[in-house]
Design brief:
TIM Barrel, 8-stranded mixed β-barrel, alpha+beta, oxidoreductase activity, single chain, 2 domains, disordered N terminus, Endonuclease - Pi-scei, Chain A, domain 1, 17% helix, 7 helices, 39% strand
Length: 398
């Protein structure tokens, strides 16, 4: 693809509009401003993703600024729109031509590449491009080209963006090959994708925060008869110490261990949590809860380990079957009110134990071996819920 000159000038700029933009906005955009960076969990480490918004809609601009994004791309023939927006908010305006993105000082910030064939993708080489950023517009396939671009630019100092028209496309680009591209250009004229993208980043950022888990002591164990219990099969594997937060009451969720451990009688199923009966709450992203009976393929849940580290996983399948149940009650040191949970009465169903500092210790105890006085882990939180959202109101659950 031909590389265009970095010395294009905008005939539409007036001296007053340029002065206004330079006064109210970032002076250089060799990289995006700090408020356009979003923390993002990337397998074993946290990296940041950049977000630029390409729009002519002032409502979109307002919504984006309110959510922490301040880098906007305007058509090159609309400098006045950028000037008007800069007068009301501190933004970093950029201007797009057919093949380039320039800042207010006409410095080349990024090169734009339309890619619709394998040959065009092959010609995109990091060493051949002088701009600090590459913006790709994938006109046909999305996932495979994005993966190829990530592989090609993995040792490059350049940032690679993909143009996205909605949040679903953005998610594909941000998660390709686990690492994702460096950022996205969200090209929209409607506010809704802005709200959806912020919600998506909030869910991903949540993963980097440790959950506060509380040790509780088992006070009662009782066989409870038959009930419909839910096995949750995930699209990812769990390791020892990991499971789902589940409970009969939202004020206290037990950390129910996965079936990842080996046994003599049944094969390990590290994708499965035998979670509890259909009425029970389960923790899902966004600080919410869902009923186990509401889970289905494609839904998201939070996988948590002994230390409170959390990650989002997708539900692949849910199995509801009638099985014998056992009631477990526990209390924390700070609350004399018992918190209870019903689970299938089987050796493969276990609760996660508190860790013993840096010393090696068991990660879980099967409910069939559970004794009064054993320690288990709870997530203690607000009791009142409305459609899974924590609210402040008087409530009694027992």
């Amino acid at each position: 693809m031909a590389m265009l000159s970095s010395h294009i000038r905008f005939a539409h700029f007036t001296s007053s509009s340029l002065s206004s933009l330079r006064h109210n906005s970032c002076s250089s955009m060799s990289s995006s401003s700090s408020s356009s960076w979003i923390p993002f969990q990337d397998t074993d480490h946290t990296k940041s993703k950049k977000v630029w918004i390409w729009t002519k809609n002032k409502q979109v601009i307002t919504a984006a600024v309110e959510r922490g994004w301040n880098t906007f791309i305007f058509p090159s023939h609309l400098p006045q729109l950028a000037s008007d927006c800069s007068s009301t908010a501190l933004i970093c305006p950029l201007f797009a031509t057919e093949r380039e993105i320039l800042d207010v000082e006409n410095k080349r910030v990024a090169a734009i590449f339309d890619i619709s064939t394998p040959e065009e993708l092959e010609r995109l080489r990091p060493e051949d491009e002088q701009a600090p950023n590459i913006v790709v517009n994938l006109l046909d396939w999305q996932v495979i080209p994005a993966e190829n671009i990530i592989a090609a630019f993995q040792n490059s100092q350049k940032s690679v963006f993909a143009i996205s028209g909605n949040t679903s496309e953005a998610q594909i680009f941000l998660e390709a090959l686990e690492h994702g591209l460096d950022g996205i250009v969200l090209k929209v004229e409607d506010v809704e994708p802005i709200l959806e993208l912020k919600e998506y980043f909030d869910r991903r950022t949540e993963e980097s925060n440790l959950l506060n888990l509380t040790k509780a002591t088992v006070t009662n164990i009782q066989v409870a008869g038959m009930g419909d219990r839910v096995c949750v099969d995930l699209c990812s594997l769990m390791k020892p110490g990991e499971g789902l937060l589940v409970g009969s009451f939202a004020r206290g969720l037990f950390l129910v261990h996965s079936e990842c451990l080996e046994s003599n009688y049944i094969a390990s199923r590290p994708f499965r949590v035998n979670a509890g009966p259909v009425h029970a709450y389960v923790a899902v992203p966004g600080g919410r809860t869902s009923y186990l009976s509401e889970l289905k393929s494609g839904k998201e849940v939070i996988v948590v380990d002994q230390q409170g580290r959390q990650r989002i996983s997708i539900v692949g399948r849910v199995k509801i079957e009638s099985r014998p149940l056992i009631l477990v009650e526990a209390k924390t040191d700070s609350d004399n009110q018992a918190i209870s949970m019903l689970l299938q009465n089987a050796e493969t169903v276990a609760l996660v134990c508190p860790s013993q500092g840096n010393t090696l210790s068991k990660t879980s105890v099967p409910v069939t071996s559970l004794k009064v006085g054993d320690g288990v882990l709870l997530r203690v939180q607000g009791a009142a819920r409305h459609t899974g959202i924590e609210i402040q109101e008087f409530i009694v659950e027992k």
